[in-house]
Amino acid sequence: MGVITPGLGISYDDGSICFSPQMRPKLALGNHGKLWSMNIILESNFLFYIKNSGKLNVLETADVSFSIARRF
Fold it and tell me: For a 10 Å CB count at each end of the chain, is N or C smaller?
């Protein structure tokens, strides 16, 4: 799964307009049996910050989760 969103904002320090799109890719892998279920989920969040000067700043966060479940 992936989500891409556009963003437009105003900079607090100088009042200039900035463009800040966001991208959130997510990948889930798993195995589901009759009794046991295992999953690994990889999720990331990229926030791009582009001002009039053309400089690109990126804030990136990532999460990994792993789960094991037994069915009753």
Answer: C
